[in-house]
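Much of the work behind modern protein science is quiet bookkeeping, done one molecule at a time. The protein below has been through that process, and both of its lines are reproduced in full.
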Amino acid sequence: INGRNSNLHLLSYSVLANIYAENGDSVNAFAVLDSMACGVGLPNQDEVLLASFYNRKGVCHTKFKDYESALACFEKASEILKERLIEDTPSKYECYLHRAEVLYMQKKYDEAYDSYMNCMQACRNKYGESSGNYYQALFTLASINAERGNVAEADSLFNVSMNFLLSNMKEMPFGLQQAKMHIYSTAKSKNKKDEEYLKLLKNTIKLD
């Protein structure tokens, strides 16, 4: 990967590595990533594509449960794009999102919450508080808070996000059922008040 086409190569090889990872082929996924490494950091290289490379590499590590390596890649991507606004840079948004997902899988809920807060704020700045993107971000924050055991905060976020989402599902009964199932599967507090909490959620957002 060199010369004037290095940006195009980075993009193409990143996609190829992700395809291998999606198919569980770690040997070829990391072989492609290794072949890309010699082209990383060339003069005049597009920093967004460079960050995308580290995001892809991090996603590959995540697929194979190497979470620490994945987090290092997302941190590198964030550092490359440190001068850019998250809401104007999809690659920077992705690195925060992927980082939050990995931390969530590691059950590091406080860190996951902090990372995803950046995504939520970016959604609000980019799309406004009346957009589906923003309310979907609130929904995810509510799920993380449920895992943290912050019942009141999770309930508040669920209430705001779900009332908005459900108002757009009047002609989508399947989507409504999916939302309902998601509530029941993720809204579990850590202080043994699950039954009381779920009852409150049902009454608040009128799922039934």
